Amino acid sequence: MTGDLGMAEPGSRGTVASVGKKRESIQVVEFVLGKEHYAIDLFDVKEVVEYTSITRLPNVQDYITGIIDLRGEITTIIDLKHRLNISETSMVTTESSRIIVLDDRMTRSKVGILVDDVSSVSTFEGDLVDYTSASVNREDTTIIGIIKRKVRVRDRETTELIIWIDIKALLRDIMSIT
What range(s) does the CheW-like domain occupy (predicted)? Predict the structure, then answer.
């Protein structure tokens, strides 16, 4: 999955103001880190690009992988697995890795997040999101909710959990995002 995701203007979507408030439906970009599924708001994403060689930078935070030249623009790459303290739990090749380029109107600079794979762009009804169990620690505002998706595995229906993270809150402490 590569290319422009057809983004709407930032702020044109509803937001979750507090725990327990639901909206009609949500649109997210689903991705994989280790063995778990995650999602971020579609409207925070500019595009998804294939992995490309990353130039390492000296004396930066551990979760900043480095920079890439994306069509003539220097883009900072953040290793989301490292930022979220996710241990290496699966063999991931650079061929399957993707860079989710964030909307620079949100980040105010060119920023991409490195993920193991991008699964899809999905729409979920608000009643499939559990906002109350999103975080054990209520001080942690990086998890918006847990999306529950029914999947069929070997003639059995099971629930797949997708951790919906607030990428703005996650990156707020490392760059000036409002």
Answer: 25-176
Q: Count of domains in the chain? A: 1
Range(s) of the domain holding residue 122: 25-171
Task: Kindly state whether residue 16 falls inside one of the protein's structural domains.
Answer: no
Q: Please indicate, yes or no, if residue 80 is contained in any of the structural domains.
A: yes
Tens of pLDDT, residues 76-123: 999 999 888 888 766 666 778 999 999 998 888 999 999 999 999 999
Its pTM stands at: 0.80
Say if 19 falls within a structural domain: no
- Which of 40-54, 66-80, 142-156, 163-177 is predicted least confidently? 163-177
